[in-house]
Amino acid sequence: MKVALLSSSLSKKGGGVAEVVLRLGQNLIKLPGMEVEAFGLQDDEIEKDLALWQPIHATICQVAGPGFFGYSPGLVQALKKSGAQLIHLHGLWQYTSLACRKSKLPYVTTIHGMLDQWAIKNSGLKKQIAAAFYEKAALKKANCLQAFTIQEYNDIRQYGLKNPVCIIPNGVDLPENIDDLKKQDAPWKNIIAPEQNVLLYLGRIHPKKGLTNLITAWKQAMLGSSSKNWNLVIAGWAQGGYEQQLKTLARKLEINDSVHFIGPQFGLNKKLVFAHADGFILPSFSEGLPMAVLEAWSYQLPVLMTKQCNLPEGFRLNAAIEIEPNVESITRGLIHFFSKDKEDLKEVGMAGKILVTQKFTWPHVSKQMHEVYEWIIGKSTMPLNVIVD
Q: 259: helix, coil or strand?
Protein backbone atom coordinates (compact mmCIF):
# COMPACT_ATOMS: atom_id res chain seq x y z
CA MET A 1 0.00 0.00 0.00
CA LYS A 2 1.19 3.53 -0.79
CA VAL A 3 0.02 6.51 1.26
CA ALA A 4 0.52 10.20 0.47
CA LEU A 5 1.05 12.27 3.63
CA LEU A 6 -0.05 15.83 2.89
CA SER A 7 0.54 18.99 4.92
CA SER A 8 0.75 22.66 3.98
CA SER A 9 4.29 22.75 5.37
CA LEU A 10 6.91 20.03 5.79
CA SER A 11 9.46 22.41 7.31
CA LYS A 12 9.99 23.83 10.77
CA LYS A 13 7.45 26.50 9.84
CA GLY A 14 4.83 23.76 10.11
CA GLY A 15 5.59 23.44 13.84
CA GLY A 16 4.10 20.48 15.66
CA VAL A 17 1.98 19.44 12.68
CA ALA A 18 5.03 18.93 10.46
CA GLU A 19 6.74 17.01 13.26
CA VAL A 20 3.73 14.68 13.55
CA VAL A 21 3.70 14.04 9.79
CA LEU A 22 7.44 13.33 9.77
CA ARG A 23 7.46 10.86 12.65
CA LEU A 24 4.28 9.14 11.50
CA GLY A 25 5.77 8.65 8.04
CA GLN A 26 9.10 7.38 9.34
CA ASN A 27 7.30 4.79 11.47
CA LEU A 28 4.77 3.77 8.81
CA ILE A 29 7.51 2.75 6.39
CA LYS A 30 8.80 0.25 8.95
CA LEU A 31 5.57 -1.73 8.56
CA PRO A 32 5.48 -4.57 5.99
CA GLY A 33 4.29 -3.53 2.53
CA MET A 34 4.03 0.20 3.31
CA GLU A 35 5.22 2.97 0.98
CA VAL A 36 5.00 6.62 1.95
CA GLU A 37 5.50 9.85 0.02
CA ALA A 38 5.17 13.25 1.71
CA PHE A 39 3.69 16.28 -0.03
CA GLY A 40 3.98 19.89 1.10
CA LEU A 41 4.01 23.46 -0.15
CA GLN A 42 7.06 25.60 -0.82
CA ASP A 43 8.21 27.86 2.01
CA ASP A 44 11.45 29.62 2.91
CA GLU A 45 12.61 26.90 5.34
CA ILE A 46 11.96 23.71 3.40
CA GLU A 47 15.29 23.52 1.56
CA LYS A 48 17.08 23.39 4.92
CA ASP A 49 14.78 20.70 6.28
CA LEU A 50 14.37 18.28 3.36
CA ALA A 51 17.18 16.05 4.63
CA LEU A 52 15.14 15.34 7.77
CA TRP A 53 12.61 13.41 5.68
CA GLN A 54 14.98 10.63 4.65
CA PRO A 55 14.28 7.90 3.70
CA ILE A 56 10.83 9.26 2.75
CA HIS A 57 10.61 11.04 -0.59
CA ALA A 58 9.18 14.54 -0.10
CA THR A 59 7.53 16.36 -3.02
CA ILE A 60 7.39 20.14 -2.64
CA CYS A 61 4.86 22.04 -4.76
CA GLN A 62 5.10 25.70 -5.70
CA VAL A 63 2.56 28.21 -4.36
CA ALA A 64 0.80 30.91 -6.37
CA GLY A 65 -1.20 33.79 -4.94
CA PRO A 66 -1.74 34.63 -1.24
CA GLY A 67 0.43 32.59 1.08
CA PHE A 68 -2.25 32.13 3.73
CA PHE A 69 -4.37 30.05 1.31
CA GLY A 70 -1.48 28.12 -0.22
CA TYR A 71 -2.89 27.63 -3.70
CA SER A 72 -0.62 25.24 -5.57
CA PRO A 73 -1.53 24.65 -9.23
CA GLY A 74 0.57 21.47 -9.46
CA LEU A 75 -0.50 19.76 -6.24
CA VAL A 76 -3.54 17.83 -7.45
CA GLN A 77 -1.71 16.39 -10.44
CA ALA A 78 1.27 15.45 -8.27
CA LEU A 79 -1.00 13.54 -5.92
CA LYS A 80 -2.70 11.72 -8.81
CA LYS A 81 0.64 10.76 -10.39
CA SER A 82 2.15 9.51 -7.13
CA GLY A 83 0.50 6.10 -7.30
CA ALA A 84 -0.84 6.56 -3.77
CA GLN A 85 -3.98 4.62 -2.93
CA LEU A 86 -4.90 7.03 -0.14
CA ILE A 87 -4.10 10.55 1.08
CA HIS A 88 -3.63 11.40 4.73
CA LEU A 89 -4.16 15.16 5.11
CA HIS A 90 -2.95 17.01 8.20
CA GLY A 91 -4.60 20.32 9.06
CA LEU A 92 -7.43 22.50 7.75
CA TRP A 93 -8.23 25.91 6.23
CA GLN A 94 -5.88 25.85 3.24
CA TYR A 95 -5.82 24.70 -0.40
CA THR A 96 -4.54 21.29 0.67
CA SER A 97 -8.12 20.46 1.77
CA LEU A 98 -9.50 21.37 -1.65
CA ALA A 99 -6.71 19.40 -3.38
CA CYS A 100 -7.79 16.23 -1.57
CA ARG A 101 -11.31 16.54 -2.98
CA LYS A 102 -10.05 17.28 -6.48
CA SER A 103 -7.68 14.31 -6.47
CA LYS A 104 -10.63 11.84 -6.39
CA LEU A 105 -8.54 9.61 -4.08
CA PRO A 106 -9.87 8.38 -0.72
CA TYR A 107 -8.48 10.43 2.15
CA VAL A 108 -8.19 10.72 5.92
CA THR A 109 -8.11 14.18 7.51
CA THR A 110 -6.38 14.77 10.85
CA ILE A 111 -7.97 17.75 12.58
CA HIS A 112 -5.03 18.81 14.84
CA GLY A 113 -7.30 20.72 17.23
CA MET A 114 -8.51 23.09 14.52
CA LEU A 115 -12.21 22.57 15.21
CA ASP A 116 -12.34 23.41 18.89
CA GLN A 117 -14.29 26.50 19.88
CA TRP A 118 -11.25 28.72 20.52
CA ALA A 119 -9.66 27.78 17.19
CA ILE A 120 -12.87 28.36 15.21
CA LYS A 121 -13.39 31.80 16.78
CA ASN A 122 -9.78 32.83 16.12
CA SER A 123 -9.83 34.57 12.69
CA GLY A 124 -13.47 33.55 12.72
CA LEU A 125 -14.65 35.48 9.65
CA LYS A 126 -11.91 34.02 7.44
CA LYS A 127 -12.79 30.53 8.60
CA GLN A 128 -16.50 31.06 7.98
CA ILE A 129 -15.69 32.09 4.41
CA ALA A 130 -13.30 29.15 3.96
CA ALA A 131 -15.89 26.75 5.36
CA ALA A 132 -18.55 28.02 2.99
CA PHE A 133 -16.35 27.88 -0.12
CA TYR A 134 -14.42 24.63 0.37
CA GLU A 135 -13.51 23.43 3.87
CA LYS A 136 -16.82 22.04 5.09
CA ALA A 137 -17.35 20.18 1.80
CA ALA A 138 -13.82 18.78 1.99
CA LEU A 139 -14.34 17.61 5.55
CA LYS A 140 -17.65 15.94 4.69
CA LYS A 141 -16.02 14.14 1.75
CA ALA A 142 -13.23 12.61 3.87
CA ASN A 143 -13.51 8.84 4.25
CA CYS A 144 -12.43 9.17 7.86
CA LEU A 145 -11.48 11.96 10.25
CA GLN A 146 -8.77 11.49 12.86
CA ALA A 147 -9.31 12.87 16.35
CA PHE A 148 -6.52 12.74 18.90
CA THR A 149 -8.90 12.65 21.88
CA ILE A 150 -12.53 12.12 22.88
CA GLN A 151 -12.85 15.89 23.29
CA GLU A 152 -11.75 16.41 19.69
CA TYR A 153 -14.25 13.77 18.58
CA ASN A 154 -16.94 15.83 20.34
CA ASP A 155 -15.71 18.99 18.58
CA ILE A 156 -16.03 17.20 15.22
CA ARG A 157 -19.60 16.16 15.93
CA GLN A 158 -20.47 19.63 17.26
CA TYR A 159 -19.27 21.08 13.95
CA GLY A 160 -21.94 18.96 12.25
CA LEU A 161 -19.72 16.30 10.68
CA LYS A 162 -21.08 12.75 10.52
CA ASN A 163 -18.03 10.99 9.00
CA PRO A 164 -16.45 7.95 10.62
CA VAL A 165 -13.88 9.16 13.17
CA CYS A 166 -10.82 7.24 14.33
CA ILE A 167 -9.54 8.23 17.76
CA ILE A 168 -5.77 7.81 17.63
CA PRO A 169 -3.38 10.03 19.64
CA ASN A 170 -0.10 11.60 18.66
CA GLY A 171 3.08 9.70 19.33
CA VAL A 172 6.48 10.46 20.78
CA ASP A 173 9.97 8.97 20.62
CA LEU A 174 11.35 7.79 23.96
CA PRO A 175 14.82 9.28 24.58
CA GLU A 176 17.57 6.74 25.13
CA ASN A 177 20.44 8.87 26.38
CA ILE A 178 19.13 11.38 28.95
CA ASP A 179 22.11 10.90 31.28
CA ASP A 180 24.54 11.58 28.42
CA LEU A 181 22.59 14.70 27.46
CA LYS A 182 22.78 15.99 31.01
CA LYS A 183 26.57 15.78 30.85
CA GLN A 184 26.54 18.34 28.02
CA ASP A 185 26.05 22.07 28.55
CA ALA A 186 22.50 23.38 28.77
CA PRO A 187 21.56 25.88 26.02
CA TRP A 188 21.08 28.49 28.77
CA LYS A 189 24.51 27.88 30.35
CA ASN A 190 25.59 31.51 29.99
CA ILE A 191 22.40 33.08 31.38
CA ILE A 192 21.25 30.77 34.20
CA ALA A 193 23.46 29.52 37.03
CA PRO A 194 23.82 25.70 37.31
CA GLU A 195 22.19 25.58 40.77
CA GLN A 196 19.05 27.32 39.48
CA ASN A 197 15.91 25.42 38.40
CA VAL A 198 14.25 25.83 35.00
CA LEU A 199 10.57 25.66 34.10
CA LEU A 200 10.38 25.22 30.33
CA TYR A 201 7.88 26.29 27.70
CA LEU A 202 8.66 24.98 24.21
CA GLY A 203 6.45 25.54 21.17
CA ARG A 204 5.02 28.19 18.91
CA ILE A 205 5.07 31.67 20.40
CA HIS A 206 1.43 32.39 19.61
CA PRO A 207 -1.40 34.05 21.59
CA LYS A 208 -3.36 30.79 21.86
CA LYS A 209 -0.57 29.31 24.00
CA GLY A 210 -1.44 31.64 26.91
CA LEU A 211 2.04 33.09 27.30
CA THR A 212 0.83 36.60 28.21
CA ASN A 213 -1.02 35.07 31.15
CA LEU A 214 2.03 32.99 32.03
CA ILE A 215 4.41 35.95 32.19
CA THR A 216 1.92 38.01 34.21
CA ALA A 217 1.41 35.08 36.59
CA TRP A 218 5.17 34.54 36.83
CA LYS A 219 5.56 38.05 38.25
CA GLN A 220 3.01 37.31 40.96
CA ALA A 221 4.43 33.87 41.77
CA MET A 222 7.93 35.32 42.09
CA LEU A 223 6.84 37.17 45.24
CA GLY A 224 7.01 33.90 47.22
CA SER A 225 10.23 32.74 48.84
CA SER A 226 9.97 29.21 47.38
CA SER A 227 10.19 30.62 43.84
CA LYS A 228 13.53 32.36 44.17
CA ASN A 229 15.65 29.66 42.54
CA TRP A 230 13.30 29.15 39.53
CA ASN A 231 13.69 30.53 36.02
CA LEU A 232 11.19 30.51 33.15
CA VAL A 233 12.71 29.58 29.79
CA ILE A 234 10.56 30.25 26.70
CA ALA A 235 11.87 28.34 23.68
CA GLY A 236 10.12 28.52 20.35
CA TRP A 237 9.59 30.14 17.01
CA ALA A 238 7.95 33.57 16.90
CA GLN A 239 4.77 34.27 14.95
CA GLY A 240 4.09 37.88 13.98
CA GLY A 241 5.29 40.34 16.60
CA TYR A 242 4.01 38.38 19.60
CA GLU A 243 7.41 37.45 21.01
CA GLN A 244 8.41 41.10 21.12
CA GLN A 245 5.18 41.89 22.99
CA LEU A 246 6.08 39.25 25.56
CA LYS A 247 9.62 40.61 25.98
CA THR A 248 8.20 44.10 26.47
CA LEU A 249 5.80 42.78 29.10
CA ALA A 250 8.62 41.00 30.95
CA ARG A 251 10.64 44.24 31.01
CA LYS A 252 7.63 46.22 32.20
CA LEU A 253 7.04 43.74 35.03
CA GLU A 254 10.78 43.80 35.88
CA ILE A 255 11.24 40.03 35.68
CA ASN A 256 13.90 39.93 32.96
CA ASP A 257 16.31 38.29 35.39
CA SER A 258 14.13 35.17 35.63
CA VAL A 259 12.35 35.07 32.23
CA HIS A 260 14.53 34.07 29.28
CA PHE A 261 13.72 33.80 25.56
CA ILE A 262 16.13 31.43 23.81
CA GLY A 263 14.58 31.11 20.35
CA PRO A 264 13.65 27.95 18.45
CA GLN A 265 15.37 24.72 19.45
CA PHE A 266 15.73 21.81 17.06
CA GLY A 267 17.70 18.59 16.85
CA LEU A 268 20.29 18.18 19.60
CA ASN A 269 19.41 21.53 21.19
CA LYS A 270 15.79 20.46 21.60
CA LYS A 271 16.90 17.28 23.37
CA LEU A 272 19.20 19.33 25.60
CA VAL A 273 16.49 21.76 26.74
CA PHE A 274 14.24 18.87 27.77
CA ALA A 275 17.11 16.99 29.44
CA HIS A 276 18.22 20.01 31.50
CA ALA A 277 14.78 21.39 32.42
CA ASP A 278 13.22 20.71 35.83
CA GLY A 279 9.61 21.08 34.73
CA PHE A 280 7.38 21.98 31.79
CA ILE A 281 4.38 24.28 31.40
CA LEU A 282 1.71 24.70 28.71
CA PRO A 283 -0.98 27.26 29.73
CA SER A 284 -2.77 26.97 26.39
CA PHE A 285 -6.27 28.14 25.43
CA SER A 286 -6.52 25.55 22.64
CA GLU A 287 -4.71 22.37 21.57
CA GLY A 288 -5.34 19.22 19.61
CA LEU A 289 -2.94 16.95 21.47
CA PRO A 290 0.32 18.76 22.23
CA MET A 291 3.50 16.99 21.20
CA ALA A 292 5.52 19.15 23.62
CA VAL A 293 3.73 17.74 26.68
CA LEU A 294 4.29 14.17 25.47
CA GLU A 295 7.95 14.97 24.87
CA ALA A 296 8.28 16.53 28.32
CA TRP A 297 6.82 13.39 29.89
CA SER A 298 9.18 11.22 27.85
CA TYR A 299 12.03 13.09 29.61
CA GLN A 300 10.30 12.47 32.97
CA LEU A 301 9.47 16.14 33.53
CA PRO A 302 6.62 17.17 35.86
CA VAL A 303 4.09 19.20 33.87
CA LEU A 304 1.68 22.07 34.48
CA MET A 305 -1.02 22.27 31.81
CA THR A 306 -4.61 23.28 31.12
CA LYS A 307 -7.47 20.87 30.45
CA GLN A 308 -7.51 22.38 26.92
CA CYS A 309 -4.39 20.27 26.27
CA ASN A 310 -6.79 17.31 26.05
CA LEU A 311 -4.72 14.95 28.17
CA PRO A 312 -7.06 14.26 31.12
CA GLU A 313 -5.26 11.01 31.89
CA GLY A 314 -2.30 13.15 32.92
CA PHE A 315 -4.33 14.61 35.77
CA ARG A 316 -5.90 11.27 36.72
CA LEU A 317 -2.50 9.59 36.98
CA ASN A 318 -0.81 12.49 38.82
CA ALA A 319 1.50 13.18 35.88
CA ALA A 320 0.49 16.86 35.68
CA ILE A 321 -0.78 19.77 37.75
CA GLU A 322 -3.95 21.30 36.33
CA ILE A 323 -4.12 25.03 35.67
CA GLU A 324 -6.75 27.12 33.92
CA PRO A 325 -5.83 29.56 31.12
CA ASN A 326 -6.03 32.67 33.29
CA VAL A 327 -3.55 34.61 35.42
CA GLU A 328 -5.03 33.70 38.80
CA SER A 329 -5.04 29.95 38.19
CA ILE A 330 -1.57 29.91 36.63
CA THR A 331 -0.24 31.87 39.61
CA ARG A 332 -1.72 29.35 42.05
CA GLY A 333 -0.36 26.48 39.98
CA LEU A 334 3.14 27.94 39.90
CA ILE A 335 3.17 28.57 43.66
CA HIS A 336 1.99 25.01 44.28
CA PHE A 337 4.63 23.67 41.88
CA PHE A 338 7.42 25.68 43.52
CA SER A 339 6.37 24.45 46.98
CA LYS A 340 6.89 20.77 46.08
CA ASP A 341 10.18 19.15 47.00
CA LYS A 342 12.35 17.37 44.44
CA GLU A 343 11.07 13.91 45.31
CA ASP A 344 7.45 14.97 44.84
CA LEU A 345 8.25 16.49 41.44
CA LYS A 346 10.20 13.38 40.48
CA GLU A 347 7.13 11.23 41.19
CA VAL A 348 4.96 13.46 38.99
CA GLY A 349 7.50 13.21 36.17
CA MET A 350 7.79 9.43 36.51
CA ALA A 351 4.00 9.09 36.22
CA GLY A 352 4.21 11.00 32.93
CA LYS A 353 7.01 8.76 31.66
CA ILE A 354 4.96 5.64 32.40
CA LEU A 355 1.89 7.11 30.70
CA VAL A 356 3.78 7.97 27.51
CA THR A 357 5.50 4.59 27.40
CA GLN A 358 2.21 2.71 27.67
CA LYS A 359 0.06 4.78 25.29
CA PHE A 360 1.84 7.38 23.18
CA THR A 361 4.81 5.83 21.37
CA TRP A 362 5.08 6.13 17.58
CA PRO A 363 5.21 2.39 16.81
CA HIS A 364 1.88 1.96 18.64
CA VAL A 365 0.32 4.98 16.89
CA SER A 366 1.52 4.08 13.38
CA LYS A 367 0.20 0.53 13.69
CA GLN A 368 -3.27 1.87 14.58
CA MET A 369 -3.18 4.31 11.67
CA HIS A 370 -2.16 1.55 9.26
CA GLU A 371 -5.21 -0.46 10.31
CA VAL A 372 -7.43 2.52 9.42
CA TYR A 373 -5.78 2.85 6.00
CA GLU A 374 -6.34 -0.83 5.22
CA TRP A 375 -10.01 -0.52 6.19
CA ILE A 376 -10.52 2.52 3.95
CA ILE A 377 -9.08 0.82 0.86
CA GLY A 378 -11.09 -2.34 1.55
CA LYS A 379 -8.32 -4.67 2.73
CA SER A 380 -9.66 -5.23 6.26
CA THR A 381 -12.65 -4.77 8.53
CA MET A 382 -13.29 -1.55 10.43
CA PRO A 383 -10.88 -1.14 13.38
CA LEU A 384 -12.21 -0.83 16.93
CA ASN A 385 -10.88 2.73 17.24
CA VAL A 386 -13.28 3.99 14.54
CA ILE A 387 -16.61 5.49 15.66
CA VAL A 388 -19.37 5.74 13.08
CA ASP A 389 -22.26 7.22 15.09
A: strand
